[in-house]
Specification:
This protein is mostly helical. It has one domain: Ferritin, CATH 1.20.1260.10. Helices cover 71% and strands 0% of the residues. Helix 2 crosses helix 5 and helix 4 crosses helix 5. The longest helix is centred in the C-terminal third of the chain and has 31 residues.
């Protein structure tokens, strides 16, 4: 049984993950409309990943026989001043989520909820990767100036294939889709 305070915070985090997914869809649509297929595909994939993170959290709560709350989310930002703005927003979002996940780990530890603390460990590792990925993408986007093909080429080189499923990832409710 998970600690009540952890359950409350994890339910909040489910909303944050769905919100991140929506924001990444908005980013992808922006790039799709600009005929930047690699950037669009990158953010569409990120949207699915964030959705799956939410579903992993749902599965954990179900497995722990705890109540699951699926909160509504605010509309994502859709108006961007340039090609760099969506990546800047993505990095800010990943840093915020990193802080939220670290806080979740802290709640689990404070409550002596070792199972929940162990569950959150994978997300802490994942957030280090997410922040690093967005930081690198932002650096390339900022350097590209008025040449978005540079960012497209970077994504083609550095993010060409799917990495495949992480065997250490928690299971997702409904399976990872």
């Amino acid at each position: 049984m998970a600690a009540a305070r952890f359950v409350e915070r994890l339910n909040e985090q489910i909303g944050y993950e769905f919100s991140a997914s929506q924001q990444y869809i908005a980013n992808a649509v922006f790039y799709d409309a600009q005929t930047l297929p690699r950037l669009a595909a990158f953010f569409y994939a990120q949207a699915v990943e964030e959705r799956n993170h939410a579903m992993m959290m749902v599965r954990y709560l179900l497995d722990a026989d705890e109540a699951v709350s699926i909160p509504g989310v605010n509309a994502p930002e859709t108006d961007f001043v340039d090609l760099v703005a969506p990546v800047t927003l993505a990095l800010e979002q990943e840093k915020r989520v990193s802080d939220q996940i670290a806080s979740l780990a802290g709640v689990a530890r404070e409550e002596g909820d070792y199972s929940s603390e162990q569950f959150v460990q994978w997300f802490l590792k994942e957030q280090v990767e997410e922040v690093a990925t967005m930081s690198s993408l932002l650096a390339v986007a900022e350097r590209s100036g008025e040449a978005p093909h540079v960012v497209e080429d970077y994504l083609a080189r550095e993010h060409a294939g799917s990495e495949g499923a992480d065997p250490t990832a928690p299971p997702a409710a409904g399976g990872a889709i």
